[in-house]
Write a structure and sequence with these properties.
- This protein has 2 domains: about 35 residues, no CATH class; about 100 residues, Rhodanese-like domain (Oxidized Rhodanese, domain 1).
- The chain has a 5-stranded parallel beta sheet. Strands 3-7 form a two-stranded antiparallel sheet.
- The protein is an alpha/beta fold.
- The longest helix has 13 residues.
- About 5% of the residues have low confidence.
């Protein structure tokens, strides 16, 4: 009985003297360029700036860029880049929730390591304009840029 049911299917697949069955045409996946054009995703990047370049941009922005120091309070109180706001790295989740994700921020620490961690976390959280200051406060001070106690 089973053979009788399968016979027509087998005949159709093999051809049974009829015109050969054409092979299925494989589906070609879209090219990466076409896929990228369809997916509209805005990805922010972390800009890098040396202390002199960062200071020049801060001055030219007339307060439209916020300078954030992610060191600990005792480090910050020992001297920091003029105009920097203290926002310690361990508290990033709390203080970043209060910031405008579309505003411009420059992030600084002592040497650039913690500021890069903070910058990476901010970009991952959806911030659009983040600049990491390379060399940190030590490079800022060595460049003779304004400091505050």
């Amino acid at each position: 009985m089973r053979q009788l049911l399968l016979a027509p299917l087998f005949a159709a697949l093999v051809g049974c003297g009829h015109a050969p069955v054409t092979a299925f045409k494989p589906i070609t996946p879209p090219k990466p360029q076409a896929m990228a054009a369809r997916a509209v995703v805005k990805v922010a990047t972390i800009k890098q700036a040396g202390p002199a370049e960062a200071y020049k941009a801060l001055v030219a922005a007339h307060g439209k860029i916020t300078l954030i120091d992610v060191r600990q309070p005792e480090e910050f109180n020992g001297g920091h880049a003029a105009g920097a706001l203290l926002q310690p790295l361990p508290d990033l989740a709390a203080w970043s929730a209060k910031l405008d994700k579309k505003a411009a921020y420059m992030i600084i620490c002592h040497s650039g390591n913690r500021s890069m961690k903070a910058s990476t976390a901010l970009v991952a959280a959806g911030f659009e304009d983040i600049t990491n200051i390379q060399g940190g406060t030590s490079a800022w001070e060595a460049a003779g840029l304004p400091m505050q106690q």
